[in-house]
Amino acid sequence: MPTTIQVKDNTLERLKFFKNYSKESYDEVINKVLNNLEEGQLSDEVERDIKIGLREIKEGKGQPLEDVTEEMGIKL
Questions:
Q1: Which of 60, 59, 51 lies closest to 14 in space, CA to CA?
Q2: Can you give the pTM of this predicted structure?
Q3: Contact 42/36 with Cβ under 8 angstroms?
């Protein structure tokens, strides 16, 4: 039986980050995240690196894809 849950705006934005495609339901996203946690697929080191990367992106330290591909000589 489907139910409705309330999440804060910042939680919704965090969930959107894990969507693989625009029409993926939040039920699918939540289950994907929970399955990964239950299976312990990420080591502590990987989790730390992901958190660092996300923080750096939020701080604007990321580099646009176009710049990276140009530096590497890759054409999109």
A1: 51
A2: 0.49
A3: yes
